[in-house]
Amino acid sequence: MEATNRPYAKFQPNEEYLEALISMGISENHAQEALFCTGNESVEAAVSYVFTNLLHEDNDDENLMPPGAENNVDESPKRYKMTFVVNTALKMGLGKTAAQVAHACLGLYREMRITGDREDALNEWDYFGEKKIVLKGENTEHLEALFNKAKEMNVPCYLVSDAGHTQIPPGSVTVLSVFGDEEEVNAITGTLSLL
Asked: What confidence tens digit (pLDDT) does each residue in 164-194 have?
């Protein structure tokens, strides 16, 4: 019996899911690992696993390019993300912070869906795992400055003002959400630390 260090070597992936993943340009090894680690749940779960875990693991973008795009770097898909900048000066509790980040995510997502702003980008973000990053903001002025910078750059953004029912005064600016491709979002929030 041949020895292997892959825990999914004897695993039987859903053939339909495996075929779909490979047709997206994901290597067979990455596709099998993703299906193994997500319990054969769905193509979407496996794709999310690949983009969340395997891209960072080996930076092997060659395995994730669409078929036929190997020689055309300009055709590779953009990666999108949503970042959330939390007003740390408010010293919100963990639950309060989580609720405010959720408000920021849903607020920006709804606003973009209603206006149709960057619908293709939003659909691609949805499909590839909805990458989200939570960052530390200094205070209200800091969040407002980042909000204004995003507006000037025409990057979708949303600023949450709390109703003041718990922990903090009404009208407090709690979280800023920003959405776009990695490059433009990093131009706004790329220097901030993770929360």
From this structure: 888 899 999 999 999 999 999 999 999 999 9
Could you give the CA distance from residue 92 to residue 174 in angstroms, rounded to a whole number? 9
Same domain, 41 and 91: no
- CATH number, domain at 46? 1.10.8
113 phi and psi angles, rounded to 5 deg: -65, -40
What is the distance between the terminal CA atoms of the chain, rounded to a whole angstrom?
Answer: 48
Query: How do beta strands 132-137 and 80-87 pair?
Result: parallel
**What domain range includes position 57?**
15-64
Tell me, yes or no, whether 94 and 52 share the same domain.
Answer: no
SS3 state of residue 157: strand
**Contact (CB, 8 A) for 186 and 162:** no
Helix and strand tally (H, E) in the chain? 8, 4
Structure tokens at 177: 């959400």
pLDDT tens-digit series, residues 4-52: 444 444 668 888 888 887 777 788 878 888 888 788 888 888 877 777 7
Q: Are residues 96 and 29 in the same domain?
A: no
Which residue(s) pair with 177 in the sheet?
84, 158
Q: What is the pLDDT of residue 50?
A: 76
Cα angle value 123/124/128 (rounded, 5°):
120
